[in-house]
Known about the structure:
By secondary structure, the chain is an alpha+beta fold. It contains two helices and four strands; from the N terminus they run E-H-E-E-H-E.
Amino acid sequence: MAYKISEDCAACGSCIDECPVGAISAGDIYKIDPSLCTECGTCADVCPMSAIAPAN
């Protein structure tokens, strides 16, 4: 199950550099492309807002 970024995202950029497959794109609220996400969880580990979690 791919990860998803919630509206709590502060667009700080911490997760983009950590994603090993480039699945995260910048914006007002960052987005994760579920077709690229390998479910490694690295993005969630570095998010200071706890805005990233597995999608339901």
